[in-house]
Amino acid sequence: MSNIKAVITGVGGYVPDYILNNHELSTMMDTNDEWITSRVGIRERRVLKVKHAGTSYMAAKAIEDLFAQTGTKPEEIDLVLCGTTTADHIYPSCASMAAEKAGIKKALAFDIQAACSGFIVSLATASSFIESGHYKKILVIGADKMSAITDYSDRTTAPLFGDGAGVVLVEPTTEEFGVMDSILHTDGVGMKHLHIKAGGSAYPPTHDTIDKKEHYTYQEGAYVFKHAVTDMAEVSADIMEKNNLTKDDIAWLIPHQANLRIIDAVVQRTGVEYEKVIINIDHFGNTSAASIPLGIWESQKKFKKGDNIILTAFGAGFTWGSIYLKWGY
Ligand code: UT7
Predict the structure, then answer these.
(1) Which atom of ligand 1 is the closest one to the Cα of 258?
(2) Domain 180-326, what architecture?
């Protein structure tokens, strides 16, 4: 094993200005603030309203924020990874479009499709690239424009999702900071229960697929909920056990934000105190791959060098996993 580790050295984020709150949603469909806040924990979410702006628009804004915070120049970046399920187009990648918009001209850029787990899978991938010595400055993005794949006449999915983008800069270090370990899993059993049926190579778009609303997210909520609770809680406990960490060793737990009740289950299983849990589902909703980097973005001022942080996510696939990292600044 190399003694090089991948450490986060900067953070950026972006959410659209438009706030879609539960009251407005309740004028669009048969739902109400009480159901959404008590069953899911969401008060409001952001929606990107800029015409023909896709996920790369938000990702580029997040990169520009990171550049402004860190003084990093576009030409210093040698790899851009984007965890997303909502690339602007089938191709090219969202990463390549975001890089272009942010003035990054020569870096390798590609997407990683692991749905809501996209950010942690991308961060683990970036970490391996750094440890191998192949790349020195990697942007790891988690970004999704979920409003583009949400049916706003379906009350079982519409209240859940929001739009946003977060990004971290990852660099090599020989000190004991950065990504210490990761555990990642996939189980294709999830396909049936959480997917977008049409628009890909199996069911290319037709009038029929549009009439049947097969270009929107389909989710069997209760089935997905059960898996999310079990798998995220178990994998968080697994990574702590594997690294001999007790709840008192953990400074911050940053879970994917799909449902406050799922987060509660992870908190109970790991024993981590609630004050150490980063929550943004109440104001951003489920932003898919963006939920964890947005959590880092909003909370980084509270982090101290050496803090042990657990990231954990669950999403379509099913994909799920945890990362253990030590904050480096
Ligand atoms: O991001 C990664 C993957 N996604 C997840 O991890 C999400 C996992 N699933 C969930 O978070 C939850 O299952 C949901 C939030 C999606 C749904 O919550 P639930 O407690 O599982 O509700 P349910 O689907 O079992 O529905 C309970 C009731 C139903 O009414 P009846 O049949 O009991 O009369 C629904 O029709 O709530 C009703 N309902 C609503 N009522 C008001 C469903 N959606 C709504 C709504 N407003 N928006």
Answers:
(1) 1
(2) 3-Layer(aba) Sandwich (3.40)
